[in-house]
Structure formats: structure tokens, C-alpha cells
Amino acid sequence: MGNEAIARGALEAGICFAAAYPGTPSTEIMEALASVAKEAGIYVEWSTNEKVAFEAAYAAAMSYVKSLTTMKHVGVNVAADILMSSAYAGVNAGFVIVSADDPGQHSSQNEQDNRWYGMHAHIPVVEPSSPRDAYKLTKAAYVLSEKYKHPVLFRSTTRISHTRQPVTFEQDIPGEKKRKGRFDRDIERWVLVPAHGRKQKRRMMEVWRKIAEEEGVEPFIKIINPGMKKAIIAGGIAYSHVIEALELLGKKDEYTVVKVSLPVPLPYKPILRALKEAQEVLVVEELDPVLEMQIKKIAYDNGVSTKIRGKDVVPINGELDLDSVARSILSFEGREPIMPWKPLEPLKLEPPIPARPPVMCAGCPHRNTYYIVKTAANKAGLKDPIFTGDIGCYTLGYEPPFHTQMTSLEMGGSIGVAHGLSKVVDEPVIAVIGDSTFYHAGLPPSINIVYNKGHAVILVLDNQYTAMTGHQPHPGTGLTAMGEPAVRVPIEKLLETIGYKTYVINPMNVKESINIVAEALKKYKEGEQVAIVSRMKCALQAVRKARKEGIRLPVYHIVEDKCTGCMVCVKLLACPAIVVPKGAKKPKILTELCVGCGLCAQVCPFNAIEIFKEGSPDWLEAWK
Amino acid sequence: MARYNILVTGVGGQGLLTLGRVVGNAAILAGIDATIAETHGLSQRGGSLIVQIRLGDGESPLIPRGAADLIIGMEVLETARRIIYANPNTRVTMNKFLWPPPLADYPDLEQVVGKMKETGVKLYMIDANRISEDVVGSVISANMVMLGFAYAVDKGLKKLFDKKHFLQAIERVFRGKAVELNKKAFEAGYEEGLKQT
How far apart are alpha carbons B37 and A285 in whole angstroms? Predict the structure, then answer.
């Protein structure tokens, strides 16, 4: 996998320190490093957020210890403050920041192009075209960072990070480790008061100028088939699409291809040469015209009038692929985009194939909590609450039948937005946030509500892991990234200390939880500051534990004689294990999918849902 | 040489990524270059999922619509949804398991199969969930049943791989008891496939 290739490249480059906060599509880089940390003799941590991770890894690089931090593209927004400063102060050992971008928004709230961050912060950007290329370029990024004593931003994308490809290792991981460094008390460098900052900026701009001047060589810029009248300049994964598209169109010999692996700052010398040699140039890049703008500037500054085209023929939205790039090339040539493949039309079915957005898993504790809080709100007479939301599996609560996520903007946003809403609207407001997200960015806005006399319920869904990205441990799990025991930081105690009357529920006990939440919501109505922590382990982890320890979970079924076909279980819970067979009047539980949480049995008004296969006596242990 | 394109489709949680990893390891063992584009994160949670396997020299990881040589469908509605990746010469292998999303109306198996056959694709079906339950005691190895089945019916795969490549790949991907169980599942799917060729 591309992410594993990046991890291997970083290990070969000799990193000794790595810190990150998980985020798709970046997560597996740190997971791969964590899994070999002890063996490789390096330090790896899951930090509480991207800014904290960046600071930790940057401190190592300030102190002569090679380091890495990784994050998803929007994670760089969280770390942007220190990112800017790191460029001013520079580093004393190789330091690479991996930004894994998500063109096409497979798992993100936007598809921002983080090459701009390099431009914005004056940090060079290295960008690979394949997992194999990512392995090599990670090492090159460390060489660049050490050469200029400057941070380097390594930009991957979903299709690099999450594509598997055979990679042949070029070298061993160095045996000798430099885990301990030293801190130079260099006040003028590390204390960025205005007088120092002005000096540092001059250093930074000199580095910037030099990179653009001198790094127009392999592996950062590579020229294929030079001297042709037509040229394509391509960066990142777009390069891989271009090579295959030219081959497919039989045009390989007609084009010079310039592969750009250092898009920011674009080294101008080889680009200028290509512009002078060609009569027409096409720039192919995913998302924004970062290369195109720089190339047009190089042409203008040097009085070159070669025709340069880019985003007028290459899509600006979403991912590129072989098909769209081949079409772009034909369109650039003024030809009809006729493709060699003849796709079938979508099947005409009645009813049509229903959309299948992601859903909460069978046994997911969020389903229980959402059912409980909606039922309790009714019971407490809390009319039409606004549910502000956040980033995690529980964001799926936006879907019917729950509608318990009415906003989802950024990490921690549920609580900050809830505060503002509570000041300007009359409806009750409930902020729903996950455990990992709470540790990440939930504390400052929680404090703000109490301090500034806002009025919103904070509901923390604690499934004990950073679940959506693959169950990384966090400060509530009791484990570190390297598998060592850790203290647990109890969310309820934090909230109590801030000033919330805090209730803790186990949502597996549905009736008891409804009563507790209803009481909490009544207190909220009376004007108290209230928080609820709903704690139940992620179902995927419970199932995993059961399988590992030979625990048998109970399995439920619907007793046909007792079922009236009221569909309450189907309509209120939307559990993927409960289906209505085509033409049937009563639902059915897919027993192979049921994990025995028992929510449906507790909800059924006719007690028609019963245990079909008993669990082992200790089955509840799996959920602990 | 044009690359050989395999589209794996199904619902998140059905073992698509694992199937992709087994094919990837088999490719390494057979000395074939490969890219396998996966889907992770939120889209993995019970949603529509595809894994795109491209075998042969080249690094562009996404299969153009109409360019799939083989579709391995773990679920009926998802296979129908991704038929746009097929052309009339594509082989479609499909698990006879229709798993409707919650709260949705949907077309039945007969209708889907009928429409699929009208397109001219070569359609092969198998009840991989049941075979997995028979062989290993749960549906967990339905993915390996499907892979064995696809290998038996698809000439393109036969040309690229020996059966031993997949069996050795299973040894590399799984651990402990799961190795033998998944080999059995693969063999059971393969046997069923032979009956249909």
C-alpha cells in the first residue's frame, strides 16, 4: 500500500520519531510505523490532534532527531499555525510532513489541494505518482529537508496512499539510531518575536529561491522523450494517467512528457527549456492549477509565447483517471474524444437500484445512543432539538431515521457551533461529538459554553477508540500507539471540572439509559449546564474480541407468530442486519450479521424479537 | 500489452479488501506487476465498495468504465450498480446474495439477472455465502469462495495465474487456522466454477 511505502521510505531515511493524528487517507503510514516501532527502535505516538503531533515531531527535528508527522489534508488546517512558523525557524534534522489529500472526497468534507500550503508557507512540496514512486520520493524528501535545513511537505492522495503495488526495497533500515538529540538555546531562531521573525523570513526566502533555482533535476523533475513539438507537464498521479493514456492512444512518440515531483516551488530551468522546445504545452494535474499558474508565470517572465493549456481541458473537480486524462489529451488536440472502451449503459430496473451510503454497523453503539436520546427528548418534553454534529462514524446519524446530525463541518465543530446557536435561536441544542474528536478539539469550545453562558447539551459518544479510521487508541483507550499501557483521561471528569453536571450511560441498557438521559434533559430545560457521556465499545471491536477469545455472542431472531409487521424495528433502527425480504410483510434478522446487541429486542412493542442462539455465559465481556 | 482489469464490488465488510490483497500477493508470486486501488474510512462502513485491480505494466490505478475484463460481485445490487464498468465481453461472476440497504425499496434477483443477461455479458452465479457457511461455518470466507469460482470460470485469470499462486497467496495473507479454512473455501468455489464451465 502507498502508505506503507511511505512508512518504509521514512524508516530507510533514518527517522527516529513519528507523531500523528489518524485521518483517512493518511492513517496507515503511522500504523505501519507503530507496528514495527520496537523492532526498529523508533518512537511512535498517536497525538491528540494534528497540531500537537506536528509540534512534537517538529521539536524532534529542532533537536537534531529526524522525524515525521502525517495527517489528512484537513488536518493540515489544524496544524497550520505551527506549519507557518516551522518554515521561518527551519530544522536541524530531516523533517517531513505528509499531507494525504482526498480528491473526489472519498472520506472527507472537502477536496482542498494542499500544494497551496507549500506556496503559502514557503515549504517545498514533494508529490509522488504511484506507491512505488512514494517510497523513493519519501527518501528524497528527507535529503531535501536535510540539505536546506527546512521542513518538506509530502503530498500524497487517496489513490497513492490506498493503492497497493509491489515495491522492491533498495536498502536496509539503518541499524544505528539517533533517538536522542540536543536543544540549542538559539533564542533568535526559536522565539519568533517580530524582530527575530523578520530575520528568519530572509533566510526562508533565500532557501525558497535556491530550491526553485537548483532542484530542477531528478528525481524532482524528469524529462521523457525530449525535443518534441508537443509537451505534457504532469505532476502526481496525473503523470501515471498521462503515460498510460499516451500509450493507449498510440501517441507516446509524439509528446515530450515532463514529470514534476516538486510542484512547489516549481524549478524553472527545465520547465523553461520544455516551453522553448515545444510549440504547444498541456498541463495535467489533479484539482487546482498549481503547476499551470507557475508555468504561465515562467513563460511570461521569460517572454516565451508557447501556447499553454491546462484547466480549460482538464477537469478541475474530483479525481482524474485514465479515461478523463485521455479525453483531455484528445480535446487538447482538437479531436473528438472517442474512447477504445464501450461501457454498458446502467441497467434499467424498477424500482431502480437504491443508493447505498455507508451505514452504522450491526450492533453499533451510536444506534442505541441515538434511539435513546430521541426517545428521552420526547419524554423530557424537549421539543425539536437541534443536533449539531461532528466528524466520525456517528456523522451517519444525518441519515434517516435518526437525523441526529444537522451540521458536520470540522473537527470539534459540534460544540462551538452549538454555543453560537444557543445564543441566537430558541430551540434546544444538543452537540453530538465522538470521544476521539472530543480529545482532539472538544475542550476549548466546552469551556467557552460555560464561560460565556451559552446553553447546549454536550453528548459524547465514547466507543473507546478512534473508530472510523480503524480503531487507533486515544487518551481514553488505556493504550499507546506502540501497545503499551497508558492512563485513561476520563471525559466525564473533564466535563465536571469545566462545570457540567455530567451523566454517564451504558447505551446497551436501553430503558435505564432513557431514564437517565430524560432526567439530564430536564435539568437542561431548567437551565443547568449538562453533559452526557454514552460509553459502549465499538461493535467491530467487540466482535473482534469475541472471535479472538472464543466468546460466542448471542444471536436474535424475529418470532413470526408474535411479529405483527408494525416495522418499528426497521423504521426506528435501520440496522443492516434487519431486512424486509421482497414482497414480505414482516421483517427478518440476517442471523449471520446479528452481533447480539439486543437493541431491537428492547424496542419491539410486541416482544417478538427473541434470542435465537444463546451467547456464552461471559458474552458481555466482549463488549467491555 | 493492455492491462487486465478486475473490478471487485460489494458492500463494506464483505472482505473485498482481503480479496484484493490475495490477488495482489498472487500477482507478486506470478511475477505480474499490479496496482490495487482500495477504499477505506467512512466509505467502508456498510456502503457501496469497489476495489480496482489492474494487472500488467502501468501505474494508473483506476479502471475506465467499460474496460473491466472481469467483475467479481459479492452482492447482487452492487454488481448491478457497477455493470457500467463492463462491456459485452466482460465476465461477471456474482454471489447470489441480495442484501438490500436499510429502509429502501429494491429490484429482486430475477429482474436483475434478466436485465444483466440482456446486456450480453457472460454471467456466472454462485451462492458463495452458503458454501462458505458449509465449509468454514460462517459467511466470513465467501470472498475466497468467489475468488476460487472466478478463477475457475475466467479464462483471463487462468492465463495469468496458476492455482498454486492463489493458494500460496492465501498463506501469505491469512494466519493460523484461517489459512486452511480459506484454502478450503477457495477450492470449494473453484469446484463449483468447474461445474459451470
Answer: 19
DSSP string, A211-242: HHHH--STTTEEEESTT-SEEEEEETHHHHHH
ipTM value, please give it: 0.95
Q: Which residues of A touch B33 (CB under 8 A)?
A: 165-166
Q: Does A468 contact B13 at a Cβ distance shorter than 8 Å?
A: no
Q: Is residue B84 in some structural domain? A: yes
Could you report how far apart the first and last alpha carbons of chain B are, in Å? 27
Find the CB nearest A349 among B78, B103, B112. B112
Q: Contact A159/B61, CB-based, under 8 Å? A: yes
A527: region left, alpha or beta (phi > 0 left; psi from -120 to 50 alpha): left
Domain contains B101: no
Name the nearest CA neighbour of A230 among A249, A217, A216.
Answer: A249
Sheet containing B91-95: which strands, arranged edge to edge?
Answer: A163-164, B34-37, B48-55, B4-11, B70-73, B91-95, B122-126
Residues in chain B: 197
In this chain, the answer to whether the domains covering A2-214 and A544-623 adopt an identical fold is no
* Per-residue model confidence as pLDDT tens digits over B158-183: 999 999 999 999 999 999 999 999 99
Mean pLDDT (chain A) is: 96
% residues pLDDT > 70 (chain A): 100
| Mean pLDDT, range A550-572, rounded to an integer | 96
Cα separation of A33 and A45, whole Å? 10
Q: What are phi and psi of A78, to 5 degrees?
A: -65, -35
Whether B177 is covered by a domain: the verdict is: yes
Q: How many distinct structural domains can be found in chain B?
A: 1
CATH 3.30.70.20 is held by the domain A544-623: yes
Of the candidates B148, B149, B80, which has an alpha carbon nearest to the alpha carbon of residue B118? B80
* pLDDT(B1) > 70: no
**Angle (nearest 5°) at CA A30 between A24 and A35:** 125
Cα–Cα dist A485/A623, whole Å: 19
**Is any Cβ of chain B less than 8 angstroms from the Cβ of A157?**
no
CA distance A348 to B115: 7
**Chain B neighbors of A351, CB-CB under 8 A:** 105-107
Contacts of B24 in chain A (CB under 8 A): 164, 166
Q: Determine the CATH number of domain A2-214.
A: 3.40.50.970
Residue A547: list chain B partners with CB under 8 A: none
Residue B143 falls within a domain, yes or no? yes
Distance between CA A291 and CA A283 in Å, rounded?
7
Count CB atoms within 10 A of the CB of residue A110.
Answer: 12
* A365-536 has CATH 3.40.50.970 classification: yes
Locate the chain B residue with the closest alpha carbon to A571: B103
* Alpha-helix runs per DSSP H in A337-442: 365-379, 413-424, 435-437
pLDDT higher than 60, residue A149: yes
Q: Tell me, what CATH number does B190's domain have?
A: 3.40.920.10
Distance CA A609, CA A602 (A): 8
Question: Which residues between 156 and 195 in chain B have a beta carbon less than 8 angstroms from any beta carbon of chain A?
Answer: none
Q: In which domain, by residue range, is B116 found? A: 4-96+106-195
Give the per-residue pLDDT at B41. Answer: 65
- Phi and psi torsions of B15, nearest 5°: 90, 25
Kindly write down the DSSP assignment for every residue of B58-96, as one continuous string.
-----PPTT--SEEEESSHHHHHHGGGG--TT-EEEEES
- CATH class label, A221-332: alpha beta
**What are the tens digits of pLDDT across the range B92-119?**
999 999 999 888 899 999 999 999 999 9
